[in-house]
UniProtKB/TrEMBL annotation:
This protein's name: Large ribosomal subunit protein uL23
Keywords, sorted A to Z: Ribonucleoprotein, Ribosomal protein, RNA-binding, rRNA-binding
PANTHER family: 60S RIBOSOMAL PROTEIN L23A (PTHR11620)
Transmembrane residue ranges: none
Function: One of the early assembly proteins it binds 23S rRNA. One of the proteins that surrounds the polypeptide exit tunnel on the outside of the ribosome. Forms the main docking site for trigger factor binding to the ribosome.
GO biological process: translation
MF-aspect GO terms: rRNA binding; structural constituent of ribosome
Gene Ontology cellular-component annotations: ribonucleoprotein complex; ribosome
């Protein structure tokens, strides 16, 4: 297994992800090559919680334009992690 800090990149702070906190679901950007089992073990090891379910999605990068120059934002992988009832991740509680 890889290092958990290489798998979990950063939390997603958005209006939708904050709404999911009420259902005990947390959203993270993860390594695009990580599978659901690796994500589950990384979250459990980093935050000492019990993961019930992991849903993943690949987010395609958008095309951006500045004047005549065209670029693209990077592709990302997002994971929505459902925790056992009663478990919380303290990183999100202050937001």
């Amino acid at each position: 297994m890889r290092n958990p800090r290489d798998i979990i990149k950063r939390p997603v702070i958005s209006e939708r992800s904050m709404g999911l906190l009420e259902e005990n679901k947390y959203t993270f950007y993860v390594d695009p090559k990580a599978n659901k089992l690796e994500i589950k073990h990384a979250i459990q090891e980093l935050f000492n919680v019990t993961v019930v379910n992991v849903n993943t999605m690949n987010v395609k990068g958008k095309t951006k334009r500045v004047g005549r120059f065209v670029g693209k934002t990077p592709n990302r992988k997002k994971a929505i992690v459902t925790l056992k009832e009663g478990d919380k991740i303290e990183v999100f509680e202050g937001v």
